[in-house]
Amino acid sequence: MAKDICLPLFETKSAKGRILFQMYAASLVVRICLIYDYRVSYLPVDGGIEWWAWIGLFLAELWLGFCLLMILVRLNPVHRYTFRDRLSQRYEKDLPGIDIFVCTADPSIEPPIMVINTVLSVMAYDYPQEKLSVYLSDDGGSNLTFYALLEASRFSKIWLPFCKKFKIEPRSPEAYFCTAIEPLDDPLKAREWHSIKKSYEEMKMLIETTTKLRQIPKAVRKEHKGFREWDFVTSQRDHQTILQILIDGRDPKAMDIEGQPLPTLVYLSREKRPQYHHNFKAGAMNALIRTSSRISNSPLILNVDCDMYSNNSESVRDALCFFMDECQGHNIAYVQFPQRFANLTKNDVYASSLIVLCGAELEGFDGNGGPSYIGSGCFHRRVALCGENYNRECKVDWKSVNHQGKVEESASVLEETCKVLASCTYEEDTEWGKEMGLKYGCPVEDAITGLCIQCRGWRSILFNPERKGFLGVAPTTLLQSLVQHKRWAEGHLQIFLSKYNTLWYGHGRIPLKLQLSYLPYSLWAANCWPTLYYAAVPSLCLLRGISLFPKISSPWILPFVYAIFANSLYSLGEFLWWGGTVQGWWNDQRMWLFKRTTSYLFGFIDTILNLLGFAKSAFAITAKVVDEEVTHRYEKELMEFGNPSPMLNIIATIALLNIISFVGGIRRVVIVDAQTKVFDQFAWQILLCGVLVYINMPVYQGAFFRKDNGRMPTSTTYWSILCALLACAIAM
What we know:
Blueprint (H helix, E strand, L loop, with lengths): L1 H4 L4 E5 L3 H24 L6 H19 L2 H6 L3 E5 L1 H8 L6 E7 L7 H12 L8 E7 L4 H24 L6 H7 L7 H27 L4 H4 L20 E6 L16 E6 L10 H16 L4 E6 L3 E2 L4 H9 L8 E5 L3 E2 L15 H11 L10 E4 H4 L12 H4 L9 H7 L27 H11 L3 E4 L7 E3 L5 H19 L5 H4 L6 H11 L5 H17 L12 H21 L4 H30 L16 H8 L10 H31 L1 H18 L1 H9 L8 H18 L1
Parallel strand pairs: 3-4, 3-7, 4-6, 9-12, 10-13
Antiparallel strand pairs: 1-2, 5-6, 7-11, 8-13, 9-11
């Protein structure tokens, strides 16, 4: 036993293949330097359009070469492994309390039935139930969400014992019954399985019917005093604090059907008033931190988005292996699980899985000093989240932390006394949103909060278990995906242009390699300009007869060939290694182009306008509700264009521009190649156009061949044809 106490609760191993990657990276750097040498050596001397086109391409290549900083992120990836058995042997009777925050904002785009599935999944963790406290933050202030949570609190009395008895996974009822097979070999389990499923379907029907009617029946309103709070609600953006403790875990009567204690369950809708800025999700999280500190005050906090249910009932114990390790755990502020999604198609048509980012890049981040906080699926140390600096002298005695004084007030008293903690005026003249809690004033409040925690001396950990910890809902339309990435790109650029730029804010506080690891993400938005240039200018120059690349008979073509093909082959191999498909990789390349030419462009423009005072930051919530037609097309991997948007205008214009240039380039080769060897001179530009044409095939199909409601809007098609023809006419 004494020997076991010395064994760590987790271990870290360096990823395989690092030397191979370093050799590939070094060869790529050499080839890119040769490309720069070619650009400088063969710079046109006559000036004019060719000179400007050449300089522009050189600048674009310089910037894309700067993106090789991403190599630094991947130089030292690490894997983490936990030992839950050792944790149980040492601390099973002294496990700390966990406060779990679930955030929702609008029942019209985040259905209450989805929200309560997430709540039930985290209530059912394989963990002492009396040590779990689940808080639902409803920023929509909706009685529909409150009603759904009330129904879930009743259903939990049969659901939690069922999960524990049969050790089922996942523990979201919807996810479980969609994938589980009826246990025909065990009559007892089959009978109970059918009973639970029937109860869930009845609850689901009640909630969905009520949500559709948008009205709580009078008989239901009389069942709980909490509904009276909505008698004083003016609107979604103008109401008092609503706080209801639906299950008080301290109450001896709060038991499931088998007599076991239930987790504490709390509903919170913080106060909203038109004259006060509510600071979006960051404000909701800070209200939860304060309120929970009065009710349960657990030393560890898990926060999840309302669409990201728990897929692994052991995740809490996995996280505790990091926090409670006697030698390595005292300076860990948060343990981040990668974002994964349950509704991805086979080939991930919108590249929503971010399969390489959540794998290779985040593990590289971890090896460089710790991953960024990504907003969901993250376990926090409360004191670190509340702004405390790391102190080597201060180590937590986990065996005594649970014996601290407990709150004695009744649930009804706590409901009243805690309301002030979620009021609009509580944060005035305080450090909340500045030095305490989540940071305000940025669309990616999670990333900036994680950075500040790291700069206070704390360490972060990425844990990427074989069974994913959390599964969410990925965007099911192109515009949803592009808008989501616009918010991320805009937020990261705001961080780069603020005092929180890692180069100076992190200087002397975090390792240099971690500072540099943040940079490629901070400059996502700036990638729009070189990508737009590369996607449009070489094609227009092809129409005009301006060559921008070496002849294929020249040895100078080799660095270009190597840089493009080696990078593509490595990217494909890496994608397949992380579980993707060849078609999935190609979809990823397409979305890479779409995001850089639209999401990043509008994110860049909005950031500059925000800095100049012409616009304000907004928090765009990705809709989780789609109709059956959209779902059907998504499952068939048909790209959903849908409603008109400036983003679609740009995508369609670039696609049409390149197909016109490609046809023009082929025509030039066929008609005059024999006399002037045009193919030798323009082969690389024709190839570039051809690749862009092939990658845009779904755009051509949506604009000219599809007849369903997900096709490219007619107005967008006409507008793009006009813009593409005009650009080609000017070029020629």
